[in-house]
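[INFO] parsing input record for Glycerate kinase
[DEBUG] input buffer:
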Amino acid sequence: MRVVIAPDKFKGSLSAPDVASRLSAGLQSAVADLETTLIPVADGGEGTLDAAVGSGFTRRTATVTGPTGQPVRADFAVRGREAVIEMAAASGLALLPSVIQGGGPDSGTATTATSLGTGELIRAALDLGCRQIILGVGGSANTDGGAGVLQGLGAVFLDKEGNELPGGGAALARLDRIDFSGLDVRLEDARFTLASDVDNPLLGSSGAAAIFGPQKGATPSDVVALDAALTNFVLVLAGEIGIRAERAAVAPGAGAAGGVGYIAIAALAAARRPGIDVVLEFTELEQRLAGADLVITGEGSLDEQSLLGKTPMGVARAAARAGIPVIAVCGRSTLSPEQLTEAGFKAVHALTDFESNVEKCMAEAGQLLEELGKHIGVHLPTSAERTDTKENVHV
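[DEBUG] output buffer:
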């Protein structure tokens, strides 16, 4: 029997590769002749890099500028002329000093955090000959409209006196012109994909500052100031590159990752696609499902958000197209049996079924997943019980 294990991370506990390997260990301890294929996946945000490496990309590392200006070591992934860049690795909330120390983001970094390191990661990928670049956004610390990305690619932002502006969204209020003379010429041959499920525009009450700024520590007055600064950025950029800068500001996804979605659409001509679709494509999940008897997917919390296109739903749809039963594992589930059935899952197993203490579930997720894998394994049909139809797989 062959089982494909294609989970997302269990946030706060285990990465997707760890989830897959723990489940596999539990399954194989229960079924001697079981073959498992591990395909870690993600929805375009954090974990996308792990999914790429698990699919044959090579992990690379570059030293870039973090969200507060300090150097950080950030990984990205390369396969031939393709690159996968996970923005959080260079410009993520988790890199903020206050977050590292166990607190939350604050007003200071909310207005000054930069996406510069993400632009530098793109440049590192260009240095390696990559010309097809997937930009996975999510978990960003910045609200700079992606200005930092352009700075990392060689653009210079100047005020009325000709002084170069510092990074961060607040500084864009003083932006007067952008010098593109040093912009990396290799961008002309590069093609970008923006992997994002966020459909917010850049500006206004549903824009980057208003909706996501408070999550990054922005106060109400910060939100007003950041939105005004981003508005000025759009006007100045439109003066440099034309009307497409204004059109991009209202495009779905422009507000993603503090506005990095905006600059990806406006300046990099990126095609925006749902993150899970992008990941399932480069992992070649559908092709690798051939001959499988069962698919196992999952994530830390299976809830209403999951139904909106998160990893388990994407995997379930792929399994359905292939006519293969799919089950889900999770830390906890808040969905009703009817919702789970409608989503296509034959069964759902939560760690809270084995351990009611949620904190213990998170701390001991690896061990519990192995137990869960074993539980699933002992309920799989034996070779003598299996027939030609996969519908006889009951788990």
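[INFO] The two ends are 14 Å apart (CA to CA).
[INFO] shutting down worker
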